[in-house]
Design goal:
single chain, about 375 residues, mainly alpha, 3 domains, two-stranded antiparallel ribbon
């Protein structure tokens, strides 16, 4: 079988002479003359990624992200993948296909496409060459370059610095402590972190003290609804989590709270196992560059775990192994349906065999074969 189309997904090597050269991959469409004119190249990959983070915290960036319906973590993962595949000296030469990045990150190609379009709208990337099918001459050049058969080339992008600095909504005097996280309630309720007797609540306390009291009302006791038992699979996953992460049991938290977290996140329904969850959390921390705090120092470790899961696992993402199993089951079902259809056709032909043979005999009687003419010598 003809070799599959290969994509350039590796980083750029910097040789001893300081010239950046892409590693062996697919053949890339050459950029036309002047395609990079006026584009502000990055000083470094880290500076560009900082610009992405700054833009996302601005009013315009947040509004554009919401309109594009792209999660913040998803955009950062795609941006980091493009950063790794770009020319590290200039930020140019990102020629990875949507499908390639989607396979690396475990998301759909459409999600990668929306994320890249959002980066362009935010002024952080520019498409210098549109992807298309190759001509015969270009296919020959691609074959000479890598020895395989390449039918089309992905778009080529340049990662650029924004022309204007973003306008931030944060206060002018941000706190000195970085990565401050205030965990919420395990039940999902909004919890204020302002003390009851703080000066900011003085006016509220005054109003509460001077307001007329409402007459007490007597509530009639209604039927008590017993809590429904958690599914067995949820209880098993919760027990595995507590076994691997013993700090979840700190503070007298009942395992039922862990079950509630799993039910709200629907991890069991989407096929996530304990090892897959832990692997995804570690992968997200490495790719996003976030600093995972010591869970034992958290006031509410369970809420901290819930925050990490929300960042690492999108709400609609199915576990990779579950997707593979579903695809395998679908193929097996289609094979069984085809076998059943073939058996039904053969049975129908067998049932009509006598009728078909009678029609053939009648045709032979009506149209007898002509005798063959003797061959002339």
């Amino acid at each position: 079988m003809v070799a599959a189309v290969r994509r350039a997904t590796s980083d750029v090597d910097i040789s001893a002479d300081g010239v950046s050269r892409a590693r062996t991959g697919s053949w890339v469409l050459p950029a036309p003359a002047g395609a990079h004119t006026g584009l502000l190249a990055w000083p470094s990959g880290a500076a560009w990624f900082d610009a992405v983070l700054d833009t996302l915290t601005s009013t315009e960036g947040e509004n554009e992200r919401r309109r594009a319906k792209v999660a913040r973590d998803t955009l950062l993962r795609v941006a980091y993948a493009d950063r790794k595949s770009a020319d590290q000296a200039t930020g140019r030469g990102v020629a990875t296909a949507h499908e390639t990045v989607a396979l690396q990150l475990g998301m759909s190609a459409k999600t990668v496409q929306r994320s890249r379009q959002l980066l362009e709208r935010l002024g952080l990337a520019v498409t210098v060459v549109e992807g298309r099918y190759l001509t015969a001459a270009e296919r020959q050049q691609a074959h000479q370059a890598h020895g395989g058969t390449q039918l089309r080339a992905a778009s080529t992008r340049a990662l650029v610095m924004p022309a204007t600095p973003p306008v931030h909504t944060a206060s002018a005097n941000p706190p000195a402590v970085e990565n401050v996280y205030l965990p919420g309630s395990p039940s999902g309720e909004q919890v204020s972190h302002v003390e009851k007797y703080s000066p900011t609540r003085a006016l509220t306390r005054t109003r509460e003290a001077t307001a007329p009291r409402r007459p007490a009302t007597t509530k009639r006791p209604g039927p008590v609804e017993l809590p429904r038992p958690r599914p067995l699979a949820v209880q098993q996953l919760a027990a595995q989590l507590v076994g691997r992460l013993p700090w979840l049991d700190r503070g007298g938290k009942h395992i039922g709270h862990v079950c509630g977290l799993l039910v709200r996140a629907q991890l069991v329904e989407r096929g996530w196992t304990l090892q897959q969850i832990l692997d995804r959390l570690n992968l997200h921390a490495r790719e996003s560059g976030i600093r995972v705090a010591d869970p034992t120092e958290q006031r509410n470790p369970l809420s901290y775990l819930a925050w990490l899961i929300r960042r690492a696992i999108p709400d609609d993402e199915i576990a990779p192994q579950a997707l593979t199993a579903a695809a395998r089951d679908l193929r097996q079902l289609e094979a069984r349906n085809r076998a059943a259809a073939d058996a039904a056709r053969r049975a129908a032909i067998a049932d009509q065999a006598e009728e078909i043979q009678a029609i053939i005999d009648t045709m032979h009687q009506q149209f007898p074969r002509r005798p063959k003419a003797p061959m002339s010598r």
